[in-house]
Amino acid sequence: MKKLKFSLAVQILIGLVLGIAVGAIFYGNPRVETYLQPIGTIFLNLIKMIVIPIVFSSLVVGVAGVGDIKKLGRLGGKTIIYFELITTIAIILGVMVANIFHPGSGVNIHELSKVSIKSYVNTAQTTHHSIADTFVNIVPSNFFEALSTGNLLPIIFFSVMFGLGVAAIGEKGKPVLNLCQGISDAMFWVTNQVMKTAPFGVFALIGVTISKFGLASLIPLVKLVITTYGTMIFFILVVLGIVAKIAGTSIFKMIRILKDEIILAYTTASSEAVLPKIMDKMEKFGCSKAISAFVIPTGYSFNLDGSTLYQSITALFIAQIYGIHMSLPQQINLIIVLLIASKGMAGVPGASFVVLLATLGSAGIPIEGVAFIAGIDRILDMARTVVNVLGNSLAAVAISKWEGKYNSIKGQEYFESINRAKKIA
């Protein structure tokens, strides 16, 4: 008798459904968090444990392969230009949608759950910084401190410089290069093992969320959820679809290739959870190793399309529920503030929520309004994480194409191999 075997994606979905069921049944019971939160935390810690070694070793190997600081500088410049363009489109789209559909109009403030935002305010005050601070903090004063805090930008900067140094010393650098390649290969093996625990992590994380806020918290804010999800689907299919077409591929191909990662990112609301796998898959899909190793981790701070979409829609939503009319100059100011504040966000759950809180005051919107969406922030976070993951994955393809380093034949062969594997399974 053939043993029934579920794919990772199906296992994660089962974990999601069971987590929702447990959270709904035991809504308001603090024991759910007591028992399940440690499981979710362990899973996220396992992911964080492998991200930095993979980013460091992959970047060193990739940059050493380029070996030319001028080429690397050109790559960095093109990457930042691409990120800024796509992020700006995302913010403008969010503002336009909020103006057209008015998700906050007609919402009764008294129906919304009152959630304390004191902890969010404190976090925002400690994390808010200027664009100048973001660039200053890219250069680490202590590399090991950056490793301990998990701050990706200074780690990327050091890895690039170290990779250039390894390339510059020629034969002497080969043992170091081989070591980094070995670390990279070993960590990708560890990643595959960690992913086997994903269904348990998803079950615990979603179970805790539903038990705390309940499914009823969705009802007064259903228009905001529908508007946000609809906009993000439009952004993926149209905006990213056009970019994919220009880059010589299809957004539907990428969705199929990244199916497991999309489901995992959605259910955990953490783009960091899938960083190692999307780096690996984009290289197999035809991207240059050096480009995918550089572009994708950098995008986790500079190219959060879903997060900026969410922030622009919810900022205007909060203004609308307070009856605040924002003029065109005020909305332009909001776009500029979001462009600046969104840089340097970490790829972890809730970071977008903190950035939103930090920018509302600058736009003249009451920050207390954030409390009204706290109950459904996790639901919105899940959607914006998927957009972030797809946006950064596509960025690797687009920049590889721009640099003339995208191997479309290799990409098509990888896509066909996935289809064959699906049919066999």
Automatic annotation (TrEMBL):
InterPro entries: Na-dicarboxylate_symporter (IPR001991), Na-dicarboxylate_symporter_CS (IPR018107), Na:dicarbo_symporter_sf (IPR036458). It is found in: Cell membrane. The chain crosses the membrane at residues 47-67, 79-101, 152-169, 202-226, 232-252, 354-376. SUPFAM superfamilies: Proton glutamate symport protein. GO terms for molecular function: symporter activity. It is a multi-pass membrane protein. GO terms for biological process: dicarboxylic acid transport. Gene3D superfamilies: Sodium:dicarboxylate symporter. PROSITE patterns: NA_DICARBOXYL_SYMP_2 (PS00714). GO terms for cellular component: plasma membrane. Keywords: Cell membrane, Membrane, Symport, Transmembrane, Transmembrane helix, Transport. It comes from the Bacteria. This is Proton/sodium-glutamate symport protein. The gene is gltT.
